[in-house]
């Protein structure tokens, strides 16, 4: 079981520097509220809820790092966890690298968790930590897909796209966060794999490019990413259900 008496120290890096373009106009996505509380605060609490996590590093929108520090001070967070805020970069990959660079030397296990997945249950966090501590250099929570997936040749906007292939659905997984890493493996991945295009949206993908093994553990449907407006409706409904259940 994960516990804080372990000789390993675990930190969670939370990339929260994105703008949330797909969510529509408004504040940076991580600062938008769910049930009256900023999404980022939910995500920080989700990481700090794990007894294994002794430090949370928030990678903030570069112009809002000061505001994010104030926000964390204002909200009650578990006191056995330390918190650090660093400014982020242009891409998620860059933001994660900046967060990892801020880690103190004694951290041996690193979780990388999207601020945009505010409702991940603590059991999923613990399962990822436990798999890393059991020796896996990279661990990803993931779920089987409901939809069949087609690979297409992307064409002009609004034009029909030719289908290239239909991968066998039973072999596919949709990956979530927190993704967990042996610290040295994650650092090597971020140092070795160059930033291409919009950058990697998945840290485990960088580790795969190193040739290191990545394993999947069961994810959770409440670890979904808030990406589009409809996801906010779902997130509010999940929070309401949790509150109702807590009442009994
Ligand atoms: N992220 C980041 N730095 C960036 C871009 C993204 O830290 N330059 C973070 C986001 O804040 C989010 C996570 O990476 O917590 C996953 O990214 P995504 O869901 O794509 O969020 P956004 O990039 O903010 O959204 P969009 O792509 O719709 O603009
Ligand atoms: Mg994005």
From TrEMBL:
First and last residue of the signal peptide: none
Keyword tags: Isoprene biosynthesis, Nucleotidyltransferase, Transferase
Gene Ontology biological process terms, A to Z: isopentenyl diphosphate biosynthetic process, methylerythritol 4-phosphate pathway
Site location (Positions MEP for the nucleophilic attack): 169, 225
Family in the record: Belongs to the IspD/TarI cytidylyltransferase family. IspD subfamily.
PANTHER family: 2-C-METHYL-D-ERYTHRITOL 4-PHOSPHATE CYTIDYLYLTRANSFERASE, CHLOROPLASTIC
Name this polypeptide is given: 2-C-methyl-D-erythritol 4-phosphate cytidylyltransferase
């Amino acid at each position: 079981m994960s516990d804080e008496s372990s000789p390993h120290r675990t930190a969670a890096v939370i990339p929260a520097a994105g703008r949330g373009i797909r969510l529509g106009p408004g504040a940076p996505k991580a600062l938008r509220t769910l049930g009256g509380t900023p999404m980022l605060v939910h995500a920080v609490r989700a990481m700090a809820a794990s007894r294994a996590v002794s430090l949370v590093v928030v990678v903030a929108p570069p112009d809002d790092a000061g505001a994010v520090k104030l926000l964390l001070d204002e909200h009650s967070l578990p006191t056995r966890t330390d918190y650090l805020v660093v400014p982020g970069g242009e891409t998620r990959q860059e933001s994660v690298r900046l967060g990892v660079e801020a880690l103190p030397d004694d951290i041996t296990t690193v979780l990388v968790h999207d601020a945009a997945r505010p409702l991940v249950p603590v059991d999923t966090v613990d399962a990822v930590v436990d798999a890393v501590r059991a020796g896996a250099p990279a661990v990803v929570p993931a779920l089987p897909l409901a939809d069949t997936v087609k690979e297409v040749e992307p064409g002009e906007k609004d034009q029909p796209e030719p289908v290239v292939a239909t991968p066998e659905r039973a072999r596919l997984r949709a990956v979530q966060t927190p993704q967990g890493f042996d610290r040295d493996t994650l650092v090597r991945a971020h140092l070795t794999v160059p930033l291409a295009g919009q950058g990697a949206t998945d840290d485990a993908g960088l580790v795969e490019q190193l040739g290191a093994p990545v394993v999947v553990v069961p994810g959770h449907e409440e670890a979904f990413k808030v990406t589009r407006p409809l996801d906010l409706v779902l997130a509010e409904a999940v929070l309401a259900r949790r509150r109702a259940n807590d009442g009994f």
